[in-house]
């Protein structure tokens, strides 16, 4: 009598999905914290050992991270942390200029509300945007918090969703090793311009300052990336 193949039970399938979900969170966090850097291979056996998981969840996690654009699956080489190209970085910055300019405008409009302003001032003071961090990692975290503050006070879910789909953490991670003191000095001054416009509750000035900041950042990042590429090609 032929053996009937047993289908996985709902509970076992659910458990496998939960394991994959948990692993995705942990791998994504490791990537964004710089444990895995852009261009680095993610070897399945190493992931299984490091995260104490099994092959099924590991493969599912890599497949789904690839669908998110965080991981790249390369034929005959396996998975690696996605490295953004110069053109892709340039394109993302151009989109960010428009979207984050709008976010700054919306945030400035809300800061004009006397009920909202005290919360914004308190949150902005906690970030201390005028501080020039000597370490790129500290600068990156302060930069992230400042932009996130504007997203939060823009209070627009559709806009936030669009920004979240742009691989901003991956972009910041790739930039982290490249930004120098001059880059940080420019960014701090530009952040101060944005902050002043927001505190003045001036939507036009806030949008203009944010767009100018991201335009300048795009030019600096592209120049750094092109310089690094030239050094690699030599």
Task: Output the keywords.
single chain; 234 residues; mainly alpha; Arc Repressor Mutant, subunit A; Four Helix Bundle (Hemerythrin (Met), subunit A); 2 domains; three-stranded antiparallel sheet; 3 strands
Output the strand order for the largest sheet.
1-3-2
Q: Rg to the nearest angstrom?
A: 21 Å
- Return the CATH topology of the largest domain: Four Helix Bundle (Hemerythrin (Met), subunit A)
SS elements, strand count: 3
Number of domains: 2
**Mind summarizing the main beta sheet?**
3 strands, antiparallel
- Structural class determined from secondary elements: mainly alpha
In CATH, what is the homologous superfamily of the largest domain? Answer: GntR ligand-binding domain-like
Q: Which percent bin holds the helix content?
A: over 70%
Word description of this protein:
By secondary structure, the chain is mainly alpha-helical. The protein has 2 domains: 72 residues, Arc Repressor Mutant, subunit A (Orthogonal Bundle); 148 residues, Four Helix Bundle (Hemerythrin (Met), subunit A), CATH 1.20.120.530. Helices cover 72% and strands 4% of the residues. It has 10 helices and 3 strands; from the N terminus they run αβααββααααααα. Strands 1-3-2 form a 3-stranded antiparallel β-sheet. Strand 2 and strand 3 form a beta hairpin. Helix 1 crosses helix 3 and helix 4 packs parallel to helix 9. The longest helix is centred in the last third of the chain and has 31 residues. 26% of the residues are buried. The model has no long low-confidence stretch (mean pLDDT 88).
């Amino acid at each position: 009598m032929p053996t009937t193949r047993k289908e996985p039970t709902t509970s076992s399938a659910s458990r496998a999905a939960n394991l994959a979900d948990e692993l995705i969170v942990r791998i994504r966090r490791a990537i964004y914290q710089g444990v895995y850097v852009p261009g680095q291979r993610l070897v399945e056996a190493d992931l299984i050992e490091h995260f104490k998981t099994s092959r099924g969840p590991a493969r599912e996690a890599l497949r789904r991270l690839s669908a998110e654009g965080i991981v790249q699956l390369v034929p005959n080489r396996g998975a690696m942390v996605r490295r953004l190209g110069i053109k892709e970085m340039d394109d993302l910055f151009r989109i960010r200029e428009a979207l984050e300019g709008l976010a700054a405008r919306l945030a400035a409009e809300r800061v004009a509300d006397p009920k909202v302003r005290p919360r914004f001032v308190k949150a902005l003071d906690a970030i201390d945007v005028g501080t020039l961090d000597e370490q790129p990692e500290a600068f990156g975290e302060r930069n992230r918090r400042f932009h996130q503050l504007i997203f939060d006070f823009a209070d627009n879910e559709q806009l936030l969703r669009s920004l979240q789909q742009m691989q901003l953490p991956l972009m910041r991670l790739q930039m982290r090793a490249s930004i120098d003191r001059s880059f940080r000095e420019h960014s701090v001054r530009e952040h101060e311009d944005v902050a002043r416009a927001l505190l003045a509750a001036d939507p036009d000035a806030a949008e203009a300052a944010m767009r100018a900041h991201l335009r300048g950042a795009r030019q600096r990042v592209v120049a750094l990336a092109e310089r690094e590429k030239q050094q690699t090609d030599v």
